[in-house]
Amino acid sequence: MRDKISVFYYPDFYAKPATFLKAILLFDELHFMDREAMTFGKGGGTRAGTIGAASPLRQVESAIRNEGVPFFVHGPPLGGLVEDERYEQIKADVNDPEFLRRFQSGLKTSATFRDLQIAKGNYGASGDQDSVAGSLIAVDLSAALKNYEGPIALFEDSDIRLMDTSTPVGCAKDLIFQAVICSAKLNFALSVGAEEGFFPLADARPYGDLLGAKYARAINALEPQKNNLQITDLSFAIFDELVSEERLTQLTLRDVIRYRKASEKAREEFLEHLSVIQAKQARIGADGDYAGAVSRLIETEIRPAVRTFKNKLRTIDEALFGAIAKGAVGALAGLTIFGDLSWPKIIGIAGTAVGYVTNAAIEAILAERAAKRECSISYILSLDE
């Protein structure tokens, strides 16, 4: 019996529609949180943070739960100054060159990740969102940090203004500030997951890369660490492999909830199969190559299963339509010879063909059910029919 998969979405207090629909289709429980008001910085150094706000998903929370989908939006922690152990975790992340490199790379390679880190808007002299992102992506961190002990030291330097992208060191400070916020959310999700049994959920590849950097740091420091892939990331990777974004966006929220209800047994089989794969093979290497581990599982476990399933269905289709064609011709051929047959007799002969087709159809249905039992991935594949 598998464990319940209760997911906690941590990049922000809402998710893009495609992410929300996928989560409803796949997971047992969905948890979101209002945006937390956080302040970072110590002593007389830089103080900066985020502004708290209620999640827009509160507007649909009750309606979705009334439809039978366990969906919850929680209030944020008390907020305020992030300090002590939480701040030490952030410092460990942001002072790790690999974590910061992956964060900067994520801004460049993933539009979803970029939009979650840098809100759309007018940033004054720095320009719009795209201009700010371009400055952070282009900055040479090694050059900007040459006079500092590490990235956090630059962030805490009150002599360098925040949100000033007119200089390389200002761009570096802003990049580090965005990484601080991202690290705070990631670490909070991991801690809540450990306490409440939630699985952290994100919808952009760089989040997995950042997790990989944390795993690599723990492994290399010889600290005890469970370095499995998150089952949430694996689920989304499989979904994206099998169902196009275009197909998903054609579905309404009501469609998705209806599909979830009608396919509960198939969804259960899919998650059961997935938990076995995750427990057996989903390991991150010492290099922290999170995305590579996901890709290897897709290649070794998912694509072969999909090919087998589709090949079985194709064989069933060929057998069915071949039998129908052959049976119908055999039963109705006499009509061209005995042109004087009355309608009752014609119907009688046609009935023979109908009976033949019905038997073939029943056999095909049973074979298709057997094929689906052998491939839990069919739960997702059926969305693309």
Mean pLDDT: 84
Helical fraction equals 55-70%
Shape: elongated
Model regions low in confidence, pLDDT < 50 over at least 5 residues: 328-350
Order of helices and strands: EHEEEHEEHHHHHHHEHHHHHHHH
Instruction: Give the strand order, joined by hyphens, for the main sheet.
Output: 5-2-1-7
Indicate the radius of gyration in whole angstroms. 28 Å
Largest sheet: 4 strands, parallel
Number of helices: 17
How many strand segments?
A: 7
Tally of separate domains: 2
Distance between the termini: 30 Å
Structural class: alpha/beta
Percentage of β-strand residues: 5-15%
List the SSEs and their pairings.
Blueprint: E1 6-9, H1 17-26, E2 29-33, E3 38-40, E4 48-49, H2 58-66, E5 71-74, E6 80-81, H3 84-94, H4 97-109, H5 111-117, H6 129-138, H7 141-144, H8 151-155, H9 168-196, E7 198-201, H10 205-220, H11 231-242, H12 245-249, H13 253-262, H14 264-281, H15 290-332, H16 343-374, H17 378-381
Parallel strand pairs: 1-2, 1-7, 2-5, 3-6
Antiparallel strand pairs: 3-4
Helix pairs in contact: 1-13, 3-9, 4-5, 4-6, 4-10, 11-15, 15-16
